[in-house]
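Operator note (shift B, R.M.): manual run for DUF4810 domain-containing protein requested after the automated queue skipped it. Running by hand, logging everything below so the morning shift can see what happened. Input copied straight from the record, untouched. If output looks odd, do not overwrite the archive copy; leave it for review.
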Amino acid sequence: MNGLHLRAAARLAGLVVLTALATGCAQQPKPLYHWGGYQTNLYEYFKADGRTPAEQMQRMEAEADRAGASGAVLPPGFRAHMGLLSLKLGRDGEARGYFEAEKRAFPESTAFVDSMLRRMDAKKTEPST
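Run finished. Output pasted below as returned.
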């Protein structure tokens, strides 16, 4: 009887080891979005670390290119942030394109993006001082 318990315990231990090995080698799920350096770029933008909008835009464009090359999806807010940087660079048409792209990619952002577009249009109609 003692030998029977020993064999059962050995089988159980073997099963536990095999299960651990099998799950350890399992493929990790692919992330939903390509975050890349976006969060760092956004933090640095709000921190005002001295990078110009042109430098920030260059980094964002490179990140978008990397995502596109790998077939990954850009995260929420990425295109809107590129639109904001475009506005700072005086590229209103480009900014509008990024804002519209954000709405297409994430329809739930429509109210926010539309408010940004309204503010952008209002600034155009303000008289210069």
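Quick read of the result: The first helix runs from residue 2 to 24. Residues 119 and 125 are 10 Å apart (CA to CA).
Leaving this for review. - R.M.
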